[in-house]
Each structure stands twice: as C-alpha cells, then as structure tokens.
Amino acid sequence: LALRDAMVVAEKEGYGCPGGWISTKKILDTYLDRLVEDFRPGRHVKVVMDCGNGAAGTVARELLQRLSNVSGEVLFDKVDGRFPNHHPDPTIPENLVDLRARMEATGAELGIAFDGDGDRIGALNDKQEIVWGDRMMILFSREILKERPGATVIGDVKCSQVLFDAVKEAGRWQAADVEDRPLPGQGQDEGDRGAFGRRDERTSFLRRPLSGL
To answer: SS3 helix, strand, coil % of the chain, rounded to 5?
Structure first.
C-alpha cells in the first residue's frame, strides 16, 4: 500500500530529473550472443534442462538451439510464479525427480536444473547422480586454470576439501564466509581471481563481464 501511495504522489507531483533520459533496448539477443561467445564445441552432448517455471525459461530453449553440437530438450520453461510442477530449488534432490526421469527416458548424459531466478544450477551426470556445487567448481576451475595458471579460486566454507586439494595443484584457493560474494574492486586484484563458488550451486566467473547490456 505504501508503494502504491508513493506511485500516486509521483504521478501527480512528478519527480523528474532535468537532463535525464530513458531508453528501451531488447537485451535477450545480446545476452544470448554473449553466452554463446565463450562456448567451445566439442563432441556431441545430449542434455535436458529443467527451468522449473522460473526466469531461465525465457532464454533456455533459444540458448540450447544456439549451442553447436548440443541437443536435447527443455522442461517447464513457461514462467509461472506458482511453480506448478515443482519448487525451483536445485539443491533439493526431490526437485530433480522430473529431470532425472526425462534424462533416463531420452538417454541424455547431462541434466541441468535452474533455480527460480536463474542464478543457480543443479546438475546430474550421465548416471543421473547429483554433481554438487563444489564438484562443479573443480571442473570449472580446471578449465580456467588452463588459461590462467596461478589464478585464485574462492570457495565458501561449506565446500569440501576435495575442491581445494584439486585447485591447489594448478592455482591458489581461498576459503570465504558463506555469504561473501566477491565483486570486482573488492579485496585482491580482480585480475588475479578466476572464479568464486558455493556449495549451493552459485558460481561466479571473474574473467570477463557481460558487457554491452
């Protein structure tokens, strides 16, 4: 109610900013182009994506079509905040039942489940087993450290020692508080960092920003 009242006042009295401007831009194509830019096709991979009726459904199907040598299908991509199929939390095994079943039915070797706002994923391997966030970080870090040997990989305190043991073979690691979210300009030199990951499947890659949006 307070927000609605403030909107009414703003519409009546106006709170303009002299010299300001408003622009409208379609960003989905730019966003998808940027995602595909870093993709390096390898052998053919069949994947199933489960959007859980969350925000990732706006781009998942188009993204899958743009990835060379990747095929598969998308589940529950119609955005619906009531989440009629299952709650979109990929860290809870019960929410991966549909994804696992569809992988088995289609012979897909990779399953990806998104959370509601699309900033976290859960993954299933070719045996439909959960790949937890710190295990995914090992795979991501190995690729990053090939390009940037010695870069620092930051993991939260809930990550297993397996992650840090794997990373220190080719780079450096740092344990962070569970709520820490390193951002450019914070802490050590940004150019020295490769990735930040949490066991809850949230990962940030500090290599290149999504510029142009």
So the answer is: 35, 20, 45
Short-list 59, 61, 52, CA closest to 80: 52
Pair 121, 114: CB distance under 8 Å: yes
Position 203 pLDDT exceeds 80: no
Q: Identify the DSSP state of 42.
A: -
Mean pLDDT computed over every residue of the chain: 80
- What's the pTM value of the predicted model, to 2 decimals? 0.75
Q: Which two tokens stand for residue 206?
A: 């500090």
User: How many other C-beta atoms lie within 10 A of the C-beta of residue 159?
Assistant: 25
Q: How far is CA 18 from CA 15, 21, 63, 112, in A?
A: 10, 9, 40, 47
What is the C-alpha separation between 115 and 135, in angstroms, rounded? Answer: 18
Strands 130-131, 152-156: parallel, antiparallel or unpaired by DSSP?
A: unpaired
Whether the predicted pLDDT of 193 surpasses 50: no
Element spanning 48, H or E: strand 45-50
